[in-house]
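Feature request disguised as a bug: please show the residue count (290) next to Alpha/beta hydrolase in the output. Example input:
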Amino acid sequence: MQHQVLPLSLRMAGAVLSAMSRPFPGATARLFYRLYCTPPGLKLRPTHEQLRDQAVLQSLEVSSYPFDNRPLKVTTYRWGAVGPKVLLLHGWGGSPFHFKQLIATLLENGYQVIAYDAPAHGLSDGKRTNLVQWMHVLEQVIQQEGELHAIVGHSFGALSAALTLSRKEVTVPKLVLLGAALSAPVFFDETLRLFRIHPTVMPKVHALIRQRLREDLTEMDMHRYINGIKANNIWIAYDTTDTLAKSTEIDEYLQLYPSIQSLRITGDGHFRIMRDAAVLTGMVRFLSAS
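Example output, currently without the count:
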């Protein structure tokens, strides 16, 4: 995260958290946790609404967490009726419709496309969500969908996909990661430094996650699962100008995980990578390869 991509409201919240952090570390941890479980609102563009109208909408019921069986409604979208199925996972605060160019490309190449609004996004249930819930929901979607040819994840969706395929009893033939986040702990650490939040807050954030989500934040890091992603083939595309998923970190990760195929581009950043021509071409080539 960097200041130039943060909205004013988030920068103001960061200033408040910074001022609170030393005298009130517990309260700061609770507010920080709440802030980062609340995705920003999103208004769809007319082209996104048109893409939505072309999809078959369905409602899928899943459980909320591994430890919470309360039902959660997830809205799914389907384009195409024949061919291998490709599941798309949007990023934090994103939408399936941000894959507009990719959806068109996949349909042109004979694939069925499936996507869904993550919890607390779009038409799906919830006001707050987190990575633990995203992994649990994805596991259930994979189980209910049956045979998938591939999963394509962007940013936070890419991290969710990689962790789910590493930690859950699900597998997929092919996995595509676009502008992938690699580590939830690193993200939290960088955010606390960015907002100048006192270091005493971070242990309390870890404790809060263990208490509320029954997970250890340090386990949500792809560096812990080198050669452990349960996908037959993995392809990652990333951009050297991406300020959210830093290319230097991905370069180092790829050296540790040499079986991953990759495409390194420059100039599109974090979001435009989803519609980059070289990325789309490379992805179709990867998906169609035997």
